[in-house]
Design brief:
Elements lengths: L6 E5 L3 E8 L3 E15 L5 H14 L8 E8 L3 E10 L4 E3 H9 L5 H23 L2 E2 L8 E4 L3 E4 L6 E2 L3 H22 L2 H12 L6 H20 L2
Antiparallel strand pairs: 1-2, 2-3, 3-5, 4-5, 6-8, 7-10, 8-9
Helix pairs in contact: 3-5, 4-6
Length: 230
């Protein structure tokens, strides 16, 4: 597939995403994973992992994800060279990060505040439901949560994550997810909103000692990571 086609949407060190319009079939996103030094065939392909995780999120966790149209990989004798996933574009959607930026640029009226509370509650429900089924995204930033029509939330870009078993691995996955969310939450949410969000996540009106320890671990993780990028 010719990845030079379409409009570039995002680009990283190992992947590139383009928006492709194919009338009358609709709009799609083509995400290509590039392995500069090859990837041993015995290692899971990133495209396959993303498709597998989308399936788990939808079927086991009951969480909306993009529809996968096709996926594949190009391999040599010993190693894969690249992989791709094509998904159908979710209409009338923006990332939670982009939406929060738009809202900040406009005066907040009561309707805006109500919509904001609804979105934050829905995001909390999705994360709690995902973790209850032992799935951890591991890149759960606001840009990887899509909002459709100010109501329905979708998770995207989940190739890093997957189901985890055992208390140590699950605790680490939960910390990674909650810390990733906290990166933008510190900027976009008030302190009272963050505390209320965590109480909703833990399903408690009063945080226990163990839950407070988790929150302190999130704060330490954010301090370490944010200082390392300055």
């Amino acid at each position: 597939m010719n990845c030079a086609l379409g409009e570039p949407v995002s680009s990283g060190s190992s992947s590139q995403t383009r928006r492709i319009m194919l009338p009358p079939h609709g709009d799609f996103y083509l995400k290509r994973y590039h392995y500069s030094e090859g990837r041993l065939r015995i290692r899971p392909d990133k495209a396959q992992r993303e498709v597998r995780n989308y399936s788990y999120l939808r079927q086991v966790c009951g969480i909306p994800v993009p529809d996968v149209v096709c996926f594949g990989a190009r391999s040599g004798v010993w190693a894969r060279r690249d992989g791709f996933v094509m998904t159908r574009r979710i209409p009338e959607s923006l990332s939670l990060e982009a939406l929060a930026s738009q809202k900040r640029a406009r005066p907040h009226d009561e309707a805006d505040r109500a919509a904001r509370r609804q979105l934050l509650n829905e995001a909390c429900t999705i994360v709690r439901r995902m973790h209850a089924q032992h799935f951890y995204h591991l890149d759960l930033q606001w840009r990887n949560i899509l909002v459709q029509d100010m109501r329905r939330l979708y998770l995207i870009d989940s190739w890093r994550g997957g189901p985890r078993w055992g208390p140590v691995f699950q605790a680490h996955g939960r910390l990674r997810d909650l810390s990733s969310l906290a990166k933008e939450a510190v900027i976009r949410m008030t302190l009272s909103e963050r505390v209320r969000w965590l109480r909703t996540y833990f399903q408690t009106r009063r945080l226990t000692r163990e839950q407070r320890m988790i929150i302190r671990a999130i704060e330490r993780d954010r301090l370490l990571k944010d200082n390392s990028t300055r």
